[in-house]
Amino acid sequence: MKKIYFFFTLALICISTSSFAKKMEDDEFHRYLKQNNELGQQYHNDLGVAIVTGDRQAIPNKICAIYKISLEQAKIAKENKHLKNSHQAETLATENINNLEAILTPHQKPITKYCQVTKLANTD
What we know:
Order of helices and strands: HHHHH
Organism: Acinetobacter halotolerans
Shape: globular
Number of domains: 1
Structural class: mainly alpha
Distance between the termini: 63 Å
Radius of gyration: 21 Å
Number of strands: 0
Helix content: over 70%
Signal peptide: 1-21
Largest sheet: none
Keywords: Signal
Number of helices: 5
Protein name: DUF5329 domain-containing protein
């Protein structure tokens, strides 16, 4: 019985401190980025369609959806600086937020306020 506990404890120590554990974190982060980027591309495409068709309700919704996922990505990347590609992910997300804010008119800025107002307007 003591041997089982010993090997179980040894396995836990090896898994939690090895490069295998970090690789799992990197893989998880990579999957998150891939999924987030696919969603972001879809939102950008939807935003383009909304702009071309003049859908005044969809435009702020898509801007704020893109902002939300970009902000989340920047926060997650910042909290996980030890992961591969985290710096690039944080930089790209921050640039995306800045680009979104650049398309807003001066009275709509900052984007955090714009998205709060948009959220409130859509709950009516």
